[in-house]
UniProtKB/TrEMBL annotation:
Keywords tagged on the record: Hydrolase, Signal
A GO molecular-function descriptor: sialate O-acetylesterase activity
Signal peptide (UniProt feature, chain positions): 1-23
SUPFAM superfamilies, per database record: SGNH hydrolase (SSF52266)
Domain of life assignment: Bacteria
Annotated ranges, domain Sialate O-acetylesterase: 109-341
Protein name: Sialate O-acetylesterase
PANTHER family: SIALATE O-ACETYLESTERASE
Length: 485
Protein backbone atom coordinates (compact mmCIF):
# COMPACT_ATOMS: atom_id res chain seq x y z
CA UNK A 1 0.00 0.00 0.00
CA UNK A 2 2.81 2.39 0.87
CA UNK A 3 4.48 1.58 -2.44
CA UNK A 4 1.31 2.44 -4.40
CA UNK A 5 0.90 5.68 -2.46
CA UNK A 6 4.53 6.61 -3.19
CA UNK A 7 4.08 5.92 -6.90
CA UNK A 8 0.95 8.07 -6.99
CA UNK A 9 2.80 10.87 -5.22
CA UNK A 10 5.69 10.71 -7.72
CA UNK A 11 3.24 10.73 -10.63
CA UNK A 12 1.46 13.76 -9.17
CA UNK A 13 4.75 15.62 -8.76
CA UNK A 14 5.80 14.82 -12.32
CA UNK A 15 2.46 16.05 -13.59
CA UNK A 16 2.84 19.28 -11.66
CA UNK A 17 6.34 19.78 -13.02
CA UNK A 18 5.17 19.19 -16.59
CA UNK A 19 2.34 21.69 -16.16
CA UNK A 20 4.83 24.22 -14.82
CA UNK A 21 7.15 23.71 -17.81
CA UNK A 22 4.39 23.98 -20.37
CA UNK A 23 2.96 27.06 -18.67
CA UNK A 24 6.13 28.98 -19.38
CA UNK A 25 6.25 30.71 -22.74
CA UNK A 26 8.72 29.07 -25.10
CA UNK A 27 10.16 30.75 -28.21
CA UNK A 28 11.64 29.09 -31.28
CA UNK A 29 15.42 29.17 -31.40
CA UNK A 30 15.44 31.74 -34.19
CA UNK A 31 13.39 34.28 -32.19
CA UNK A 32 15.92 35.56 -29.68
CA UNK A 33 18.13 38.40 -28.57
CA UNK A 34 20.54 39.73 -31.23
CA UNK A 35 18.20 38.77 -34.09
CA UNK A 36 17.58 40.88 -37.18
CA UNK A 37 13.93 41.46 -38.02
CA UNK A 38 12.99 42.37 -41.57
CA UNK A 39 12.68 46.13 -41.64
CA UNK A 40 9.62 48.24 -42.46
CA UNK A 41 7.15 45.37 -42.78
CA UNK A 42 4.97 43.08 -40.70
CA UNK A 43 6.96 40.28 -39.08
CA UNK A 44 5.71 37.12 -37.41
CA UNK A 45 6.50 36.20 -33.81
CA UNK A 46 5.42 32.83 -32.50
CA UNK A 47 5.96 30.19 -29.85
CA UNK A 48 4.30 27.92 -27.34
CA UNK A 49 2.74 28.18 -23.92
CA UNK A 50 0.14 26.51 -21.76
CA UNK A 51 -3.20 25.91 -23.46
CA UNK A 52 -5.21 29.14 -23.69
CA UNK A 53 -2.47 31.08 -21.88
CA UNK A 54 -2.81 34.87 -22.15
CA UNK A 55 0.35 36.60 -23.36
CA UNK A 56 1.33 40.26 -23.57
CA UNK A 57 4.07 41.42 -25.94
CA UNK A 58 5.60 44.86 -25.51
CA UNK A 59 8.11 46.22 -28.02
CA UNK A 60 10.40 49.21 -27.72
CA UNK A 61 9.15 50.69 -30.99
CA UNK A 62 5.37 50.26 -30.78
CA UNK A 63 3.24 52.40 -28.51
CA UNK A 64 0.64 49.72 -27.90
CA UNK A 65 1.23 46.28 -26.45
CA UNK A 66 0.11 43.18 -28.32
CA UNK A 67 -2.27 40.93 -26.40
CA UNK A 68 -2.80 37.37 -27.62
CA UNK A 69 -3.97 34.03 -26.29
CA UNK A 70 -2.48 30.61 -27.02
CA UNK A 71 -4.81 28.11 -28.63
CA UNK A 72 -6.04 24.89 -27.08
CA UNK A 73 -2.74 23.16 -27.91
CA UNK A 74 -0.56 25.96 -26.59
CA UNK A 75 0.45 27.47 -29.95
CA UNK A 76 0.51 31.21 -30.37
CA UNK A 77 1.46 33.61 -33.15
CA UNK A 78 1.23 37.34 -33.76
CA UNK A 79 2.43 39.97 -36.19
CA UNK A 80 4.22 43.22 -35.45
CA UNK A 81 5.00 46.18 -37.70
CA UNK A 82 8.71 47.06 -37.89
CA UNK A 83 10.29 50.33 -38.96
CA UNK A 84 13.43 51.57 -40.71
CA UNK A 85 15.10 52.55 -37.44
CA UNK A 86 18.74 51.59 -37.11
CA UNK A 87 18.64 51.74 -33.31
CA UNK A 88 18.78 48.51 -31.26
CA UNK A 89 15.33 47.40 -30.11
CA UNK A 90 13.87 45.11 -27.46
CA UNK A 91 10.84 42.89 -26.94
CA UNK A 92 9.29 41.81 -23.63
CA UNK A 93 6.99 38.79 -23.56
CA UNK A 94 4.93 38.24 -20.41
CA UNK A 95 2.47 35.64 -19.25
CA UNK A 96 1.33 34.36 -15.88
CA UNK A 97 4.49 32.28 -15.57
CA UNK A 98 6.97 34.08 -17.87
CA UNK A 99 8.82 37.32 -18.27
CA UNK A 100 11.12 37.08 -21.30
CA UNK A 101 13.18 40.00 -22.57
CA UNK A 102 14.85 39.96 -25.99
CA UNK A 103 17.50 42.63 -26.45
CA UNK A 104 19.86 44.07 -29.06
CA UNK A 105 17.39 43.45 -31.91
CA UNK A 106 18.00 45.19 -35.23
CA UNK A 107 15.76 45.99 -38.19
CA UNK A 108 17.32 45.19 -41.54
CA UNK A 109 17.39 42.86 -44.53
CA UNK A 110 17.02 39.15 -43.73
CA UNK A 111 18.14 36.50 -46.23
CA UNK A 112 17.95 32.73 -46.11
CA UNK A 113 21.02 30.85 -47.42
CA UNK A 114 20.40 27.21 -48.33
CA UNK A 115 21.59 24.34 -50.51
CA UNK A 116 24.35 21.77 -50.43
CA UNK A 117 28.12 21.83 -49.88
CA UNK A 118 28.96 24.82 -52.05
CA UNK A 119 26.59 26.89 -49.91
CA UNK A 120 27.61 25.17 -46.69
CA UNK A 121 31.37 25.57 -47.41
CA UNK A 122 32.66 27.84 -44.63
CA UNK A 123 35.06 30.74 -44.91
CA UNK A 124 37.80 28.52 -43.50
CA UNK A 125 37.31 26.16 -46.48
CA UNK A 126 37.39 22.37 -46.50
CA UNK A 127 40.41 20.12 -46.01
CA UNK A 128 42.80 20.92 -48.85
CA UNK A 129 40.14 23.12 -50.48
CA UNK A 130 40.55 26.85 -49.88
CA UNK A 131 38.35 29.90 -50.21
CA UNK A 132 40.34 32.51 -52.12
CA UNK A 133 40.68 35.74 -50.13
CA UNK A 134 39.32 34.22 -46.93
CA UNK A 135 42.19 35.33 -44.67
CA UNK A 136 41.64 39.01 -45.47
CA UNK A 137 37.86 38.70 -45.34
CA UNK A 138 37.93 37.01 -41.94
CA UNK A 139 40.40 39.54 -40.56
CA UNK A 140 37.97 42.36 -41.48
CA UNK A 141 34.84 40.53 -40.34
CA UNK A 142 33.91 42.52 -37.22
CA UNK A 143 30.54 44.09 -37.97
CA UNK A 144 27.80 44.65 -35.36
CA UNK A 145 25.31 45.33 -38.17
CA UNK A 146 25.74 41.89 -39.73
CA UNK A 147 24.19 39.02 -37.75
CA UNK A 148 24.39 35.27 -38.39
CA UNK A 149 22.12 32.36 -37.45
CA UNK A 150 22.74 28.73 -38.45
CA UNK A 151 20.57 25.64 -38.34
CA UNK A 152 23.31 23.05 -38.00
CA UNK A 153 23.34 19.47 -39.23
CA UNK A 154 20.99 17.16 -37.41
CA UNK A 155 19.59 13.75 -38.23
CA UNK A 156 16.60 14.19 -40.49
CA UNK A 157 13.05 13.83 -39.32
CA UNK A 158 10.16 11.87 -40.78
CA UNK A 159 7.75 14.63 -39.78
CA UNK A 160 8.12 18.44 -39.68
CA UNK A 161 9.72 19.70 -36.47
CA UNK A 162 8.42 22.80 -34.75
CA UNK A 163 11.83 23.99 -33.59
CA UNK A 164 15.51 23.59 -34.47
CA UNK A 165 17.23 20.84 -32.52
CA UNK A 166 20.80 22.00 -33.22
CA UNK A 167 21.70 25.55 -34.11
CA UNK A 168 24.15 28.38 -33.70
CA UNK A 169 22.20 31.33 -32.20
CA UNK A 170 22.08 34.83 -33.59
CA UNK A 171 25.48 36.44 -33.21
CA UNK A 172 27.42 39.39 -34.55
CA UNK A 173 29.81 38.85 -37.43
CA UNK A 174 33.29 38.44 -35.96
CA UNK A 175 36.38 36.64 -37.23
CA UNK A 176 35.42 33.68 -35.03
CA UNK A 177 31.78 33.44 -36.14
CA UNK A 178 32.48 34.15 -39.82
CA UNK A 179 35.20 31.49 -40.04
CA UNK A 180 32.56 28.77 -39.62
CA UNK A 181 29.79 30.42 -41.62
CA UNK A 182 28.95 29.91 -45.30
CA UNK A 183 31.47 31.75 -47.47
CA UNK A 184 28.90 32.50 -50.18
CA UNK A 185 26.35 33.62 -47.60
CA UNK A 186 28.74 35.80 -45.64
CA UNK A 187 30.31 37.47 -48.69
CA UNK A 188 26.84 38.17 -50.06
CA UNK A 189 25.55 39.61 -46.79
CA UNK A 190 28.68 41.63 -46.05
CA UNK A 191 28.48 43.51 -49.31
CA UNK A 192 24.72 43.96 -49.08
CA UNK A 193 25.11 45.50 -45.64
CA UNK A 194 27.80 47.89 -46.80
CA UNK A 195 26.02 48.97 -49.99
CA UNK A 196 22.56 49.49 -48.46
CA UNK A 197 24.00 50.78 -45.16
CA UNK A 198 21.41 48.86 -43.12
CA UNK A 199 21.71 45.86 -40.82
CA UNK A 200 21.61 42.45 -42.49
CA UNK A 201 20.66 39.09 -40.99
CA UNK A 202 21.72 35.81 -42.59
CA UNK A 203 20.04 32.48 -41.83
CA UNK A 204 22.02 29.44 -42.94
CA UNK A 205 20.37 26.05 -43.41
CA UNK A 206 22.40 23.79 -45.71
CA UNK A 207 23.92 20.32 -45.91
CA UNK A 208 26.63 19.03 -48.24
CA UNK A 209 25.58 16.37 -50.72
CA UNK A 210 21.88 17.08 -50.22
CA UNK A 211 19.36 16.49 -52.97
CA UNK A 212 16.56 18.88 -53.84
CA UNK A 213 14.13 16.15 -52.72
CA UNK A 214 15.51 16.38 -49.16
CA UNK A 215 14.54 20.08 -48.99
CA UNK A 216 10.97 19.55 -50.18
CA UNK A 217 7.92 19.06 -47.98
CA UNK A 218 5.90 15.88 -48.15
CA UNK A 219 3.00 17.82 -49.65
CA UNK A 220 5.12 19.26 -52.46
CA UNK A 221 7.17 16.16 -53.28
CA UNK A 222 4.31 13.67 -53.12
CA UNK A 223 2.90 15.23 -56.30
CA UNK A 224 5.87 13.72 -58.16
CA UNK A 225 6.73 10.52 -56.29
CA UNK A 226 5.57 8.19 -53.56
CA UNK A 227 7.19 8.87 -50.19
CA UNK A 228 7.31 6.09 -47.64
CA UNK A 229 9.76 6.54 -44.77
CA UNK A 230 8.18 3.93 -42.52
CA UNK A 231 11.15 1.58 -42.56
CA UNK A 232 13.80 4.15 -43.44
CA UNK A 233 16.59 4.84 -40.95
CA UNK A 234 16.33 8.61 -40.90
CA UNK A 235 19.79 8.95 -39.28
CA UNK A 236 21.60 7.36 -42.24
CA UNK A 237 22.38 9.93 -44.94
CA UNK A 238 19.39 12.18 -44.18
CA UNK A 239 20.69 14.60 -46.83
CA UNK A 240 19.61 12.03 -49.45
CA UNK A 241 16.24 11.15 -47.88
CA UNK A 242 13.18 12.83 -49.41
CA UNK A 243 11.69 15.52 -47.10
CA UNK A 244 14.16 14.77 -44.27
CA UNK A 245 15.97 18.14 -44.27
CA UNK A 246 12.84 20.14 -44.89
CA UNK A 247 11.37 18.55 -41.80
CA UNK A 248 14.37 18.99 -39.50
CA UNK A 249 16.22 22.05 -40.84
CA UNK A 250 13.77 24.24 -42.75
CA UNK A 251 10.33 23.89 -41.19
CA UNK A 252 11.70 25.04 -37.76
CA UNK A 253 12.52 28.50 -39.18
CA UNK A 254 9.22 29.04 -40.99
CA UNK A 255 7.56 31.60 -40.76
CA UNK A 256 10.44 33.86 -39.64
CA UNK A 257 10.05 36.83 -41.98
CA UNK A 258 12.73 37.05 -44.65
CA UNK A 259 13.39 39.34 -47.58
CA UNK A 260 14.50 36.54 -49.89
CA UNK A 261 16.61 33.43 -50.38
CA UNK A 262 19.88 32.49 -52.05
CA UNK A 263 20.34 28.86 -53.10
CA UNK A 264 23.39 26.87 -54.24
CA UNK A 265 22.49 23.26 -54.97
CA UNK A 266 22.26 20.87 -57.89
CA UNK A 267 25.39 18.76 -57.93
CA UNK A 268 23.52 15.91 -56.22
CA UNK A 269 20.80 16.01 -58.88
CA UNK A 270 23.10 16.49 -61.86
CA UNK A 271 22.02 13.22 -63.48
CA UNK A 272 18.32 14.17 -63.26
CA UNK A 273 17.90 17.31 -65.38
CA UNK A 274 14.33 16.58 -66.52
CA UNK A 275 13.20 15.74 -62.99
CA UNK A 276 14.95 18.79 -61.53
CA UNK A 277 13.05 21.03 -63.93
CA UNK A 278 9.87 19.86 -62.19
CA UNK A 279 11.09 19.57 -58.62
CA UNK A 280 13.09 22.77 -58.17
CA UNK A 281 10.29 25.19 -59.19
CA UNK A 282 7.85 23.14 -57.11
CA UNK A 283 10.14 23.47 -54.08
CA UNK A 284 10.35 27.24 -54.46
CA UNK A 285 6.59 27.55 -54.90
CA UNK A 286 5.99 25.48 -51.77
CA UNK A 287 8.45 27.48 -49.68
CA UNK A 288 6.77 30.69 -50.73
CA UNK A 289 3.32 29.39 -49.80
CA UNK A 290 4.56 28.33 -46.38
CA UNK A 291 6.26 31.64 -45.63
CA UNK A 292 3.10 33.44 -46.78
CA UNK A 293 4.88 36.67 -47.73
CA UNK A 294 4.32 36.50 -51.48
CA UNK A 295 6.81 35.56 -54.19
CA UNK A 296 9.91 36.63 -52.28
CA UNK A 297 13.13 36.95 -54.34
CA UNK A 298 14.84 33.63 -55.00
CA UNK A 299 18.36 33.82 -56.45
CA UNK A 300 20.30 30.67 -57.20
CA UNK A 301 23.68 29.54 -58.52
CA UNK A 302 24.14 27.49 -61.66
CA UNK A 303 26.46 24.57 -60.93
CA UNK A 304 30.02 25.23 -62.04
CA UNK A 305 31.92 23.13 -64.60
CA UNK A 306 33.50 20.03 -63.05
CA UNK A 307 34.77 16.79 -64.55
CA UNK A 308 32.17 14.49 -62.94
CA UNK A 309 32.44 11.18 -64.83
CA UNK A 310 34.38 12.48 -67.82
CA UNK A 311 33.98 14.62 -70.93
CA UNK A 312 32.72 14.24 -74.50
CA UNK A 313 29.50 12.69 -73.22
CA UNK A 314 26.16 13.13 -74.96
CA UNK A 315 23.64 11.47 -72.61
CA UNK A 316 21.62 13.85 -70.42
CA UNK A 317 22.33 11.83 -67.27
CA UNK A 318 26.09 11.96 -67.89
CA UNK A 319 26.69 15.46 -69.25
CA UNK A 320 26.14 18.27 -66.74
CA UNK A 321 25.53 20.77 -69.56
CA UNK A 322 21.98 19.42 -69.78
CA UNK A 323 21.53 20.21 -66.09
CA UNK A 324 22.94 23.72 -66.47
CA UNK A 325 20.49 24.22 -69.32
CA UNK A 326 17.59 23.24 -67.07
CA UNK A 327 18.76 25.61 -64.34
CA UNK A 328 18.76 28.44 -66.88
CA UNK A 329 15.28 27.45 -68.09
CA UNK A 330 13.98 27.60 -64.52
CA UNK A 331 14.34 31.38 -64.70
CA UNK A 332 11.26 31.42 -66.92
CA UNK A 333 9.35 29.05 -64.61
CA UNK A 334 10.09 30.61 -61.21
CA UNK A 335 8.72 34.16 -60.81
CA UNK A 336 10.99 36.78 -59.24
CA UNK A 337 14.10 34.67 -59.61
CA UNK A 338 17.66 35.20 -60.77
CA UNK A 339 20.68 33.07 -61.58
CA UNK A 340 24.42 33.42 -61.00
CA UNK A 341 26.31 31.86 -63.91
CA UNK A 342 29.67 30.31 -62.92
CA UNK A 343 31.05 28.95 -66.22
CA UNK A 344 34.36 30.74 -65.63
CA UNK A 345 34.72 29.79 -61.96
CA UNK A 346 34.77 25.99 -61.96
CA UNK A 347 37.61 23.58 -61.46
CA UNK A 348 38.30 20.23 -63.05
CA UNK A 349 38.65 19.02 -59.47
CA UNK A 350 37.49 19.42 -56.71
CA UNK A 351 33.78 20.11 -57.02
CA UNK A 352 34.04 23.12 -54.68
CA UNK A 353 35.34 26.16 -56.61
CA UNK A 354 37.51 28.37 -54.38
CA UNK A 355 36.33 31.65 -55.95
CA UNK A 356 33.32 32.08 -53.75
CA UNK A 357 33.42 35.88 -53.75
CA UNK A 358 32.61 35.97 -57.46
CA UNK A 359 29.66 33.66 -56.80
CA UNK A 360 28.44 35.94 -54.01
CA UNK A 361 28.97 39.00 -56.23
CA UNK A 362 26.76 37.59 -58.97
CA UNK A 363 23.98 36.73 -56.54
CA UNK A 364 24.34 40.23 -55.12
CA UNK A 365 24.04 41.88 -58.54
CA UNK A 366 20.72 40.09 -59.03
CA UNK A 367 19.45 41.36 -55.69
CA UNK A 368 20.68 44.92 -56.11
CA UNK A 369 19.07 45.28 -59.54
CA UNK A 370 15.89 43.25 -59.16
CA UNK A 371 15.09 43.55 -55.45
CA UNK A 372 16.58 46.87 -54.42
CA UNK A 373 16.02 48.81 -57.63
CA UNK A 374 19.61 49.69 -58.49
CA UNK A 375 19.01 49.37 -62.22
CA UNK A 376 22.50 50.54 -63.16
CA UNK A 377 23.87 47.24 -61.77
CA UNK A 378 24.22 44.70 -64.57
CA UNK A 379 23.45 41.19 -63.35
CA UNK A 380 23.18 38.98 -66.45
CA UNK A 381 25.73 37.62 -68.90
CA UNK A 382 25.16 37.02 -72.63
CA UNK A 383 22.17 34.80 -73.47
CA UNK A 384 21.78 33.21 -76.90
CA UNK A 385 19.07 34.99 -78.88
CA UNK A 386 19.20 34.17 -82.63
CA UNK A 387 21.24 32.48 -85.36
CA UNK A 388 21.75 33.14 -89.09
CA UNK A 389 23.97 31.65 -91.80
CA UNK A 390 27.06 33.65 -92.73
CA UNK A 391 30.23 32.87 -94.67
CA UNK A 392 29.70 29.11 -94.46
CA UNK A 393 29.24 29.30 -90.71
CA UNK A 394 26.60 30.39 -88.20
CA UNK A 395 26.38 33.89 -86.74
CA UNK A 396 25.04 33.97 -83.18
CA UNK A 397 23.49 37.02 -81.57
CA UNK A 398 22.87 37.53 -77.86
CA UNK A 399 20.82 39.35 -75.29
CA UNK A 400 22.55 41.33 -72.52
CA UNK A 401 25.33 42.59 -74.77
CA UNK A 402 24.35 46.28 -74.81
CA UNK A 403 27.97 47.40 -74.82
CA UNK A 404 29.41 44.28 -76.36
CA UNK A 405 30.74 40.80 -75.66
CA UNK A 406 34.27 39.91 -74.70
CA UNK A 407 36.77 37.07 -74.34
CA UNK A 408 40.01 37.33 -72.37
CA UNK A 409 42.14 35.26 -74.74
CA UNK A 410 39.82 34.18 -77.53
CA UNK A 411 36.76 31.94 -77.57
CA UNK A 412 36.85 28.23 -76.85
CA UNK A 413 34.32 25.44 -76.40
CA UNK A 414 32.20 25.92 -79.54
CA UNK A 415 30.99 22.96 -81.60
CA UNK A 416 29.01 22.91 -84.84
CA UNK A 417 26.91 20.28 -86.61
CA UNK A 418 25.08 19.69 -89.84
CA UNK A 419 21.83 17.83 -90.40
CA UNK A 420 23.58 14.55 -89.49
CA UNK A 421 23.64 15.80 -85.85
CA UNK A 422 27.36 15.12 -85.46
CA UNK A 423 29.15 17.92 -83.62
CA UNK A 424 32.70 18.94 -84.54
CA UNK A 425 35.01 21.33 -82.71
CA UNK A 426 34.68 24.76 -84.31
CA UNK A 427 36.49 28.06 -84.56
CA UNK A 428 34.67 31.02 -83.08
CA UNK A 429 35.38 34.72 -83.22
CA UNK A 430 33.65 37.88 -82.08
CA UNK A 431 32.13 39.96 -84.88
CA UNK A 432 31.46 43.69 -84.46
CA UNK A 433 31.88 43.23 -80.71
CA UNK A 434 28.30 41.91 -80.39
CA UNK A 435 28.03 38.60 -82.26
CA UNK A 436 29.94 35.34 -82.60
CA UNK A 437 30.73 33.59 -85.89
CA UNK A 438 31.13 29.82 -85.52
CA UNK A 439 32.65 27.85 -88.39
CA UNK A 440 34.36 24.54 -89.23
CA UNK A 441 35.68 23.18 -92.50
CA UNK A 442 34.37 19.76 -91.40
CA UNK A 443 30.77 21.04 -91.54
CA UNK A 444 30.07 22.78 -94.88
CA UNK A 445 26.32 23.15 -94.24
CA UNK A 446 25.92 23.84 -90.51
CA UNK A 447 22.56 23.96 -88.78
CA UNK A 448 23.35 23.89 -85.04
CA UNK A 449 25.86 25.16 -82.50
CA UNK A 450 26.70 24.11 -78.96
CA UNK A 451 28.85 26.06 -76.52
CA UNK A 452 30.68 24.50 -73.57
CA UNK A 453 28.52 21.39 -73.85
CA UNK A 454 30.69 19.23 -71.59
CA UNK A 455 31.18 18.55 -67.90
CA UNK A 456 34.55 20.27 -67.56
CA UNK A 457 34.99 23.42 -69.63
CA UNK A 458 36.53 26.85 -69.27
CA UNK A 459 33.93 29.52 -69.90
CA UNK A 460 35.31 32.17 -72.26
CA UNK A 461 32.24 34.04 -73.53
CA UNK A 462 31.56 37.12 -71.40
CA UNK A 463 29.98 40.52 -71.69
CA UNK A 464 31.92 43.68 -70.94
CA UNK A 465 30.83 43.50 -67.31
CA UNK A 466 32.78 40.21 -67.23
CA UNK A 467 29.63 38.20 -66.58
CA UNK A 468 29.77 34.84 -68.37
CA UNK A 469 27.32 33.17 -70.71
CA UNK A 470 25.84 29.85 -69.69
CA UNK A 471 26.59 26.78 -71.75
CA UNK A 472 23.90 26.62 -74.43
CA UNK A 473 22.77 24.83 -77.57
CA UNK A 474 20.70 25.96 -80.54
CA UNK A 475 19.23 22.48 -81.11
CA UNK A 476 16.96 20.22 -79.10
CA UNK A 477 18.28 16.92 -80.38
CA UNK A 478 18.19 13.99 -77.94
CA UNK A 479 20.31 11.82 -80.24
CA UNK A 480 23.23 14.07 -81.23
CA UNK A 481 26.77 12.66 -81.20
CA UNK A 482 30.29 14.02 -81.17
CA UNK A 483 32.77 13.45 -83.97
CA UNK A 484 35.42 10.90 -83.13
CA UNK A 485 38.82 12.41 -82.56
Amino acid sequence: MKKITLLLLVAALNCALLQSVYAEVKLPAIVSSNMVLQRNTTVKLWGWADANEKITIKTSWLKKSISIQADGEGNWKCIAQTTNSKEPQSITIKSKESNIKLENILFGEVWLCSGQSNMEMPMKGYAGQPIFGSAEAVAKANNPNLRLFSVTRVSGSKTPLKDAIKYSPWQQATPESVLKFSAVGYLYGKQLQEILDVPVGLILSSWGGSSVQAWMSNEALSKFQTIDLTNRDIAVKPNAIPTALFNSMLNPIIPYTIKGAIWYQGESNVDQPAKYKELFPAMVEDWRKRWDIGNFPFYYVQIAPYLYGGNDLTAANKNSAFFREVQLQCLDIIPNSGIAITMDLGAESPIHPPRKKEVADRLLYNALNQTYGLKSINFAGPVFDSMTEKEGGLLLKFKNEEIGIYAHNGLEGFEIAGSDKVFYPANAKIIDRKAVLVISDKVPNPVAVRYDWNNWVKGTLLNTNLLPASSFRTDDWPDATKAKK
